[in-house]
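Below is one protein, fold included:
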Amino acid sequence: MRTVRERLRKVYGVPGWPPHERPLDELVLTVLSQSTNDRNRDAAFAGLRERFDGWAAVRDAPVEDVEAAIRPGGISQVKSRRIQQILRALDDDLDLGWLRDAPLEEARDFLCALPGVGRKTAACVLLFSYGRRDVPVDTHVGRVATRLGWLRPGAASPELHDEMVALTPPGAELELHVNLLRHGRRTCHARVPRCRECTLRRICPSARL
């Protein structure tokens, strides 16, 4: 782990993203990120903020209006309904500031009980909003970590997340998530990984040299 962190730092640096303390924004943003790229996700989020005056307005609007606002993000029909389901499940608790100080398991279980919210989405909310000890394991992070031998191939999401948290030194959650994600996008591709150019090639048991 120490060697991987050092080598990834040389390529990608150390992320300097302080917690933004907007958990509901992060929750909606993560729903919008499904099956699309960051640019389309951000365009869909901006569309929501421009069209509606707050999350209560999104919750109470006709679903067709929400769908139109997020159309640039793709799969807008599904995502608009999911966002409204989440907001209605929260009722009037549209602040979620209590997640900052709640016991981690309690905060995680609460988020995972919301419609369509799994461990990755919950981890994004907790880590990016408040710097809580969690590591989102998306497709890229999971692929790189599995090829490094850290995660069991084919493991379910709860196991992947529990194992990543256990492996990650306290305080390194954001750095590890972001740099593994960057590495998965730029080098450790799903079908044809660029192993000969990889900074981890000498310590990766899956390297194709």
Remarks:
- Residues 23-130 form a domain with the Endonuclease III; domain 1 fold (CATH 1.10.340.30).
- The CA atoms of residues 93 and 101 lie 16 Å apart.
- The mean pLDDT is 94.
- The two ends are 21 Å apart (CA to CA).
